[in-house]
Design goal:
The protein is 77% helix and 0% strand. With 145 residues, it is an all-alpha fold.
């Protein structure tokens, strides 16, 4: 996701008076700016950085949904709405079959060791941000058996 696109979408949400959407996109922009400042690339906020921030925000909202008390339907609806909006901007993740194909193709020599730690170390650098870590872990565990 391009940073400029997020800004344009926030302006469109403000013009449409869509408060919930504006707040969700605004939080993404603020988080992206903070990470950019922390990493020293304030002027040039790249697509990879924005995608990383979106995935982290998505994970945070999912945790809020999971820990929300069952009797608080108002909070649950608010979190779900935010989750749906942020999910629109999240990059597409690889499926378990795609992850298995990449691992067996690119990391065959490391896979031969059957050492899960070494495999995960090699694979995570390549697939971080492209696939969910839980999916990668499950595929590696299956391949190590």
């Amino acid at each position: 996701m391009q940073f400029e696109q997020l800004q344009k979408d926030m302006v469109a949400a403000m013009k449409a008076r869509d408060k919930e959407r504006k707040e969700a996109i605004s939080s993404l922009i603020a988080a992206a700016k903070k990470v950019a400042i922390d990493e020293g690339c304030r002027d040039n906020i790249g697509e990879e950085l924005v995608n990383r921030v979106i995935l982290k925000e998505l994970k945070t909202i999912q945790e809020q949904l999971d820990t929300c008390p069952a009797q608080r339907d108002d909070l649950r609806a608010e979190y779900q709405g935010r989750y749906d909006i942020v999910k629109e901007y999240a990059p597409a993740m690889m499926s378990a079959d795609e992850v298995r194909a990449v691992i067996t193709k690119k990391f065959a020599e490391v896979l031969a060791t059957k050492n899960k730690g070494q495999i995960m170390k090699a694979v995570m650098g390549e697939l971080k941000g492209k696939a969910d870590g839980k999916v990668i872990n499950q595929v590696v565990a299956q391949l190590c058996q």
